[in-house]
Design brief:
2 copies of one chain form a homodimer.
Chain A: E1 8-11, H1 22-32, E2 36-39, H2 46-63, E3 67-70, H3 73-78, E4 83-86, H4 93-100, E5 105-110, H5 113-121, E6 126-130, H6 146-156, E7 160-163, E8 181-184, H7 186-189, H8 194-207
Parallel strand pairs in A: 1-2, 1-8, 2-3, 3-4, 4-5, 5-6, 6-7, 7-8
Helix pairs in contact in A: 1-2, 1-8, 5-6
């Protein structure tokens, strides 16, 4: 059982959406069904990241949706975000958990059972597992399929979202995966209507049969 | 009165020295007279920064010399460094001080009296003031001279180091500045013999007449 609703996890990308538009896009996306927001900034200065996080936090707080900060534990602390998401190139999960304390959310990117089991041991609450498809927004090491996700879910015991190139029209890839939700970047960031895009993604996720036998 | 000896402050640069050689260079530099070390990593992943900080901390701890982390408060916390150094594009000093607590060192880059006074108000212990000369290692907004440093020192009440292109043979620029020390990057990072370079820098600093009347 997850401490948060992972159904539709929005990961931001300021290459796809200018920072000054981001709060509006996030607001609309939440109205459409986004249940969790991760702010990811790969080129911003610390000051910019901090200021953008404050602006997004106003939106997520209004909607009582958790805000997770990507990579930067200091930014998470500085804005009192609900949690941190780290990849395999970020701080070790055990170190992040120690500094965050037990109450904050800690998500970890994993693409193998080994990484997932290590993350569970080191204090992660939930996982982002991918990539499901090749994407432009992040370099992809290797692709995962529904049966891999299912094994990761079962062997780590952690709730997880599938990530990487997921759209409403390819959500069937999660069939049988036992994924607790789906994380998207461009499917919402690049949408003309983020609210409607989010609504379609939730609907597609519900219909994907993630709990079906493989 | 500074909480640390600012006489010769080494700021690292992995563009000038490969990370695997850095601990050895820092060790030699401390033997030559470096009193404070700042680890600055502008392109490393968080994991790399963390690992490099752990490696440098072994060296600084052996010599009982404080280790300061540039920009990344999370890395400073993760390795339990002695402090953090932030610039005007990093986290606000007040936020950094709140998270660091009262016991850690907090240095702030300032190039005007206004920035220096704000840093003092926001919890800085000491300042890096520059640039004294144009450099290749950092983009320079504007240059400061000894009389500006003197005013910053007097009006902020904070101990400070001059930084930016300082070498043993141009240390005279600090004459009358009241600087508590000098920070260098390439003068040590690029030196064939970091120990001897540090020794010459300390000697030049002692002879520069920083407390002379202007």
């Amino acid at each position: 059982m997850s401490r948060v609703d992972l159904t539709l996890y929005l990961v931001t990308d300021s290459d796809l959406c200018p920072p000054e538009k981001m709060p509006e896009v996030v607001d609309k996306a939440i109205r459409g069904g986004v249940t969790l927001v991760q702010l990811r900034e790969k080129t911003a200065s610390s000051r910019e990241f901090y200021q953008r996080a404050l602006a997004i936090k106003e939106v997520t707080s209004d909607h009582h949706v958790p805000l997770i900060i990507n990579d930067r534990l200091d930014i998470a602390l500085a804005v009192d975000a609900d949690g941190l998401h780290i990849g395999q190139e970020d701080l070790p999960a055990s170190v992040a958990r120690r500094i965050l304390g037990p109450d904050k959310l800690l998500g970890v990117s994993a693409s193998t059972v080994e990484e997932a089991v290590a993350a569970a041991r080191d204090g992660a609450d939930h996982l982002g597992v991918g990539a499901l498809f090749p994407t432009d927004t992040k370099e992809v090491d290797h692709l995962v399929d529904a049966s891999t996700i299912r094994r990761i879910r079962q062997q780590s015991g952690l709730p997880l979202v599938g990530i990487g190139g997921i759209k409403a029209n390819n959500m069937g890839v999660l069939r049988g995966s036992l994924a607790d939700g789906v994380a998207v970047v461009s499917a919402i960031m690049c949408a003309y209507d983020p609210e409607s895009a989010a609504r379609q993604l939730v609907e597609a996720y519900r219909k994907a049969g993630v709990n079906d036998e493989i």
